[in-house]
Amino acid sequence: MDRFLFKQVDNIGLVLWRVVFGALIAIEAFGAIATGWLRRTLVEPDFTFNFIGFEFLQPLPGNGMYIYFAVMGVFGLLVMLGYKYRFSMACYAIMWTCVYLMQKSSYNNHYYLMMLLCWLMVFLPANRWFSLDAKFNSNIKSPSMARWVYVVVIAQIWIVYTYASVAKFYPDWLDTTIAELFMKGKKDYWLIGEFLQLNWVHWCITYVGIFFDLLIVPLLLWRKTRLLGFIISVFFHLFNSFVFLIGIFPYMSIAFALFFFTPETLKKRILPKKTLYTKGEVIVPNYKPFLIGVFSVYFAIQIALPLRHWFFVDDVLWTEEGHRLSWRMMLRSKGGILTVWVEDKATGERKRYNYGKMLTAKQRRSVKAKPDMLWQLVQRIEAKEAAEGRDVAIYVDSRVKVNGGPYFPYIDPEVDLAAEKWKHFEHHDWILPSPSDYHKKSASK
């Protein structure tokens, strides 16, 4: 194991990844400003739906978030250049983690993956070559690194793709319902809009998605299929980028190939002036027990988190419990109808509450079909009423449709949600049981 993990190998893949990753996270930060994502998500809302337990993380007032993201972008550029690398990477990791935990209305799996990669990169020796740090400080300059660095990154990538594939094994994905639903929204796309409506295209999207996620890492690991895997990866991710408009994630995924190609190939194609390392010493560091312990715990958590929904009552597709942090990517379409009732405990008077005035359009869409956000909305309404001197109970009439199916009752209308506590690892009984026919295809049989 020591020979496998601590053998010194050439670091060209890691340093090239640092350059690409730094550029992409800088683009993510500056792009959030340029595209209006920052304004819509963190500036315009009166409040954000943070991850429960992180209520203290709220957007900075005024133009604070614009400055915040601009600073993040600068740190991304410094990571790309390899200047004050660990400090710059740690600062970006902290700032992006705060952004990630600050809001759920625009939840995206690649935001989560980016957070994990940022923290991993803090501890990887990615600045020892082809960096300003190495140029200014010859003591840290080195053409090699321990092989465990590659193992850690590839293991993280493999976990992501494998769980993404396994999650697709459910009826509405397998019978192309999801592909058809998603492609309907692309009908107006220039040139390919009508093409995306073809039935055989839906079948291709469905099963290419499953097998790509399941097989891409093995294809890249095996020398004989590596080039084929890379070509497939480029096509797959560029298609996703163009059709789904999902930011930097497709390009970050293409860049993962840097961890799979041999140093000789990368030197020849990308960095011809790099001095390749070939000695292959085995250097076991004094911190080996700590390193093994930390990554053992880390990967145990990464493997366990996507499985947690199996320990909840009912279907995660219905309850959403255990959905986040599980690599359940683009698996369903949900919509809801919501009415909130506030009852004054002193007088018994019940009135309909206009919650819409508190939320942006994006937040209104999200809150109707996500129990945790609905619970948070109720807590805010209760706090607002309490500030005005009223002790209230709050009830909701909620109906949800899944994957284009009919609407069904979702939240128990007899439960005072304001009095309920949030439980991170337990089922919430106020979420009504899923109907047996709540899927569109099942309902039609």
Strand order of the largest sheet: 4-3-5-6
Distance between the termini: 55 Å
Structural class: alpha+beta
What would the principal axes of the Cα set say about the shape?
globular
Question: How does the major sheet shape up?
Answer: 4 strands, antiparallel
Tally of distinct domains: 2
Tally the helices: 19
Task: Tell me the total number of β-strands.
Answer: 6
Q: Secondary-structure element order, as H and E?
A: HEHHHHHHEHHHHHHHHHEEHHEEH
Radius of gyration: 24 Å
Q: Name the beta content range.
A: 5-15%
Mean pLDDT: 94
Which stretches of 5+ consecutive residues score pLDDT under 50?
A: 441-445
Report the helical percentage. 40-55%
Folded structure, characterized:
This protein is α+β, with helices and mostly antiparallel strands and 445 residues long. It folds into 2 domains: 2-310, no CATH class; 333-443, no CATH class. The chain is built from 19 helices and 6 strands. It has helices at 2-5, 12-34, 37-43, 64-81, 85-102, 109-122, 132-136, 148-166, 171-174, 177-184, 199-221, 226-244, 249-255, 263-269, 288-304, 316-319, 361-367, 371-387, 440-443; strands at residues 8-10, 144-146, 334-344, 350-353, 392-402, 408-411. A 4-stranded antiparallel beta sheet has the order 4-3-5-6, covered by helices on one side. Helix 5 (85-102) packs antiparallel against helix 6 (109-122), helix 8 packs parallel to helix 15 and helix 12 (226-244) runs antiparallel to helix 13 (249-255). The protein is globular.
